[in-house]
Sequence to fold (1264 residues):
Amino acid sequence: MTTKAGTTVPRPETAHRPAPWVRTRLRSAPLAALLMAALAFVTVFLAAAFPRVADRGADGALREFVRGRGLNATSLHVTQGRLFSAPTAAELDEVQRKLVGEISPHLPLTPAGQVYGTRVPRSQGMLNKGYVRFHERLPPTLNLMYQHGFTDHATLTDGTWPGPAAKGEPLPIVLSAKAAETIHIKLGDVIDSGEEVTGPIRAKVVGFYRIDDPDDPFWYGVVCPARACLEGAGGEVFWKTGGFVDGGSLSALLAWGKGGENFWRMPLDPDALRADTIGDTRATVGSYMTGPGATALGRVTGRPDLRVTSFLPDVFARATARYEAAAPIAAIGPAGVAGVAAVVLCLAAALTADRRTAEIRLLRARGGSRGGVLLRLLGEGAMTVLPAAVIATALALALLPTPRWGGAVLAALVVTLLAVLAFPARAFVLLSRPRAVGGWRRVVGELAVLAVTAAAVAEVRRRGVAPAGSGVDPLLVTAPLLLALTGGLLLARIQPVVVGWLAALAGRGRGLVGFLGLARAARDTSGRRRPSVLPLLALLIAVTTAGFGATVLDTVDSVRLRAARMAVGGDAAVSVPLDSTLPEAFTTAAGGLPGARAATGVWIDTENFIMGTDKGSTQATLVVAEPKAYAEIARTAGIGEFDPALLAGTPGGPDTPVPALFSRNLADQLSGGPHRLRTPNGGELLTTVAKVVDGTPALPDGFKPFMVLPAGPAAERLPELKRVNNWFAVGDVDPGQLAALVRERGITSTEGMAKLVREEAQASSQERHGLPAGFSVRTSGEVAADLAADPLQRSAGRLFWSAVLAGAGFALLAVLLTLFRAGPDRAALLARLRTMGLRPRHGLALIIAETLPQTLAAAVGGGLTALAAVGLLGPAFDLSSLVGAKVGDVLTPVLLPVLLPTLGLALVVCAGVVLETAVTGRRQIATELRAGEQG
Amino acid sequence: MKSTPQERPVAEAPSLQELQQRALAAAAPKAYGAGAAIVCDRLVRIFSAEGIEVQALQGLELTIDQGDLVALVGASGSGKSTLLTILAGLDVPTAGTATVAGCDLLEMSTKERLRYRREVVGFIWQQTARNLLPFLTAAENIALPMQLRGRRSGAGGSRRQAARVGELMEALEIGDLARRRPGELSGGQQQRVAIAVAMANNPPVLLADEPTGELDSETAGVIFESFRTVNRELGATVVIVTHDPMVAGEVRRTVAIRDGRTSSEVLRRTVTDEHGEESVNEREYVMLDRTGRVQLPVKFLEALGMEHRVAVDLAADHIEVRPDDLAGH
Fold:
């Protein structure tokens, strides 16, 4: 364009330029955009976090389970047996290097506990005079081995480390100083192990050592490295100890042990295991045991006779089975949250579309094409949701590190898509031509959901508990959600009718507020403009999920406590070693412990015989207890309940029979009449069958024949039965106090060999209360806690509760969103009513009357759906993995756990409504009235 | 399409062929409303909601010439707003024909309807706030239809749009309001911005539904002046729907609608008499439809007590309508 000199082309003002749509629109309503971004952020974060949390839970559970199996079960054991020629230590080193080089790229190995060396197949007796023997025939024994690097893990206390064996000389060895002291071995002793055809078998003690750290995995699997161990049973016991030789005397070692094998232990690193790749790991282990891996090991090391054994495949199989049993229960909570969140996202979209209908219509009337308008809306959504979603996903990935990210990103992507697309999709429907009223679409949709739900429930029930190895069953996980959806749709049909009926009823009364509120509530759901099925659905799914989850957790808790009580035999139990008894001072004091409801000392003896059975005589366990307390314990524990009056007995001479409880398998062998009982000491007693029971608290496993005698009458006839070697109680007894009491009054002193045995056992025992071995204090609380101390259960429980919380939050959000949307409309109504003389108090009542029917209907409906879901789907869940013990219990509907979340959610929502009204309602009404004045 | 007088060669004498054509054209049934900007013929629109049918238009006939400024008046519920929504392409008639600037409103595809809304008609609603997006400035609102039309080709297009916005604001005397948002404008200003928005794509037809309904009479006068400006300077055919009978004084032609039909109309002309004085000549007509039906004004009928039947006589230059002299027989 050319211009004449002196004239300027009028440049259009920048103000006249078209506005960039998305930026301008978002800037005009920053709060709405921020809220949408926040909703997207939270939802996407949860969506990305749940798979990560589940993954971490599964990994943690697997690792803890594998670690708990011990080093032996989680190692690859490579052995080369039947050695014809002795290897050198350098050869062993070489093989070790090659094995690690071959295996570690495929399996995560840990260097801790990686040991190798040469061992002999059996121990040799130490025939030297002066060494401690308990029995003339049984000399103490010695087991020798070479384990690479043993000098680094022990400290020399006396003498020297052994060197290479010289030809014809005794084999130089080191022993633990403690063992030497116990067995009375002195430095420089030549241990004589008899003669062979090849010559005398001798080893010379050249040094003593002390183990640096007994818990070092290096010592795991070595025969008695730290001190002498007591072997044998009954009176036939002997000391046994281990010793080490130098790597240079391996051929002498083979000669000493009459053979031997090389071994390499390759422990897997439990911390590097992943639940998702467990199948591959298992296959790799299998390959090294028998398969291409085994061949490769033989080839690499040049020793084709290497054998690989491991318990790992079995360990993995068990871990997988446990995980798969717990997975569906753990997945139900997140599935419920996903349902509620999806409903809330749709609701937010519907409300936004509702709010912006006029704007969209105007755009359309001004010549906006449908595609163009939708693109603009999509742009807005993308601008708000996408950054929030990206940040949320990144945050979830960063905060919850776990190697797998596919599931999290996929879930985040799905949620993001839903958040971005829901509003344009709703607007698309709005922009389309209105459909004919009263179409069949809704009915057809509802019938379809109903049919799918019925099919899912029928299939889940038909199949029962899913077999192990089938993974998470999507049908099982979605079935409660489908039930909730069906319940919601049914409720959406029923509620308007019922509320309308109520409104008609209220209309006949005198109060105006109730009628107005109910009429509005009824119209809300039937009216087409407001999407009130969605908040109902959100609430209902949330309540159903919470109720279902609470029922599962509650059932698991009670089943676990029952399992624990069964294992303990009541709430608290004390047992003592075979040879000792509990003094009366203890039983009296223990009965007075705070929390003990019923307590009794019990004599349990297995070596009794009942005469005159159909086999002649039958060995039976005798339980002598105080009947009243024992009956209470049996009742509480739920095992072998009986009426204490049955065992009251009659005072009388030794010929009067004592009434007793008989186990079923024992009673089956008896014919009528009093039965003669013979104790191991030769005492005899007549008994009659008072009742036949299936089990008794003192003998929870109850497979062996037993009988329960009342303490008083039994002791009267046979004083030896007055003794007590067990103590049982029910009630909330503190295990610490009980253990203290046992230490103080329960332990009777012992001496001689029994003392030695006990000390030895105490040194190796792991009793948690620091009691001597054989003594034990167990409480149902501790056992239940032990059962519950499993990362699998912990993560499932945590997931459940966080799901319940998140679901409740979303449901509350759904209700608040609806309230906010309806706010201006309601404020206008209130303002109008206010001009007609309505009091502010009535206004609040009106809003509550309007909101309450829906909330209550959703809460009650959700509770009923939860009960129905538990009843319908309960048999398909295996609780064992959550309880921690194998139990046959199935989920049955329980009222209380369903009632609590139902009421809680209803209360929270009502409080939210009241708060919203109190805060924003008042302001809106004021604005409304002022606006009226201005107009 | 028949040849129109403008296309006929004027200089030459008509040939035989042309005379033949002319004769055939005269003999053929005349196409209804040919050459007009808006033609409605027996237009019917039935709304049905929840089982109840409402016949908003009952065979309405209307012809509006190009460049005309017409007011449609009628009581509320007479169907005038329905007619306007149909003309705006936002609603589809149930039966009949409606043609606006050559576009058949019944036969249009979705794509054509979109083009129609973009290029053929502009629309102004009664509620001042409903015409404008509250978050856009006046200038941005005016630019919006051009933006939505989407023919911008880079910066040049943008500059052209800005120029058009400036031009429209200048014409409607709202140039200084460019940066204000609708909330900061008075009702009259908002309505003038709305007129600018409606005219943004320079449509040949401008439709307004009660544009002065929420304004006081003084402001309403200003708005009508704007409409006249648009009509005169931008050459648009303007149709204004109103229930205000005073509007008749502002426009050339006023068409009254009753019960979904056009009933009467008032033509207003400036006549110069033999003394050179100008006077405004107003004449009320009733509509004669294609089947010969006439709807007589209610006040005429009441004045003469006419009902059920009237006597009709043909005179040399008019038709007499008298009360039924045989009443009771």
Observations:
- The interface with chain A takes residues 49-50, 88, 90, 110, 114, 117-119, 123, 130-131, 133-137, 139-140, 142-150, 152, 158-159, 161-163, 165-166, 169, 178-179, 197, 201 of chain B (CB under 8 Å).
- The longest strand of chain B covers residues 52-64.
